[in-house]
Structure formats: structure tokens, C-alpha cells
Input
Amino acid sequence: AQSVTQLDSHVSVSEGTPVLLRCNYSSSYSPSLFWYVQHPNKGLQLLLKYTSAATLVKGINGFEAEFKKSETSFHLTKPSAHMSDAAEYFCVVSHGSGNTGKLIFGQGTTLQVKP
Amino acid sequence: NAGVTQTPKFQVLKTGQSMTLQCAQDMNHEYMSWYRQDPGMGLRLIHYSVGAGITDQGEVPNGYNVSRSTTEDFPLRLLSAAPSQTSVYFCASSTSYNEQFFGPGTRLTVL
Output
């Protein structure tokens, strides 16, 4: 069975410093993995996705994530945080092999960016 | 393209009332899903559909019904609302080869 664990419920960084949001997954299949972002009172926006191509995935707004099969991790990083990055971030795995239309979400990490 | 649309944006119900949350997409996506979002729990899958006439249960289906008579529409019905169903509901759609696109959400309060 698939599952996702986001290791931090809340991360606080200063503007201009690096961001690291940690995610571990469990999957019986070769997984499709995603990071979504949700700004306050907004819907969900896809940041990036991994679907068994390159292990280092680049997304929007300077974010990237590295798929590490040996560590079952898919951590999200950004070299320099911006105030507009403050939001909730979800690590997500697609249930089953490939894109099945069913997603399993982590609990979410709230990113706070301090001036 | 309007993408994924949901109505209403906000709704207040009394315990025991029934209602239908509407979801429509204009991208000809075969997959559609309903999720609920509760604080500290991420999003949880309620029901999903892989095409018109085909639906299946997700992680938290109790108290909800769905049907999919057309590719475009995927309504979610609350049969007898309970306070535990107070949540934000998101509808999503996708094809078999791309990511899911989410609607703006419906915020439901059950008193």
C-alpha cells in the first residue's frame, strides 16, 4: 500500500535562506510523486512531479525535488525563500502504478517565511 | 477553458439535511475525484471515477454518494449531513498521463 509522510508539520525560514521540506513515501510500485502548494484560502497548484524520468525534478518558482529510491524520499528544496512562498505544501503519491486518478496526500507542511 | 469548477463556494447545512456539491470540467478528462480537506490531515479521497458510468470508493466514502453520467460532471451527494462532514471539499480531474487539476473548493459547515 502507498503512503506518504511529511516529516515536519511546520517549517520557519528567513527570507533569502534555503528551504527544505521533507517527504518520505512508501509504495509497492514505481511511484508517481508530486508536490502541491496551497496558499491561504486558495486551491491547490502543482509545483512539480516525478514520473520515473530524471530523478532531479525542477518545478515552478525555483523549487526542485530529488527522488531517492534508496532512501524512499522526495524532499522539496529552494535555494532562497521569498515571502510569497509562505503557504502549505503537500507531498503526494499516486495510488498504484502510474497515474491512476487517485492521490494519497501527506499531512502537509506549513512554510513560514520571516522578513 | 474554465478548468474545474465547483459550486457552491460556501454552504451551511443543518444536521440531517441533504445536498449536492457540483463539479464540472471542460478538459475532456476521464479521471475525476472528490477529496475533503481537514486541518492536519491533508486531503483524503472520498470517491473517484475513471470514466462516465464508472465510480469507486476512496478512503473516506461513508455518508457520500456519487454518480458520473457524463464525462464533464461529477456531483457529490451528502445523504444526511452530520457535523463530522464539516470540511473543505475539492474536486479534481486528470487524464491518465498528466497531473490532477483541482477546483477552487467548497467550504461546508454542518450545524
Q: What stands out?
A: Chain B has a mean pLDDT of 94. Chain B touches chain A through 28 residues (CB under 8 Å). Residues 2 and 8 of chain B are 16 Å apart (CA to CA). The two ends of chain B are 36 Å apart (CA to CA).
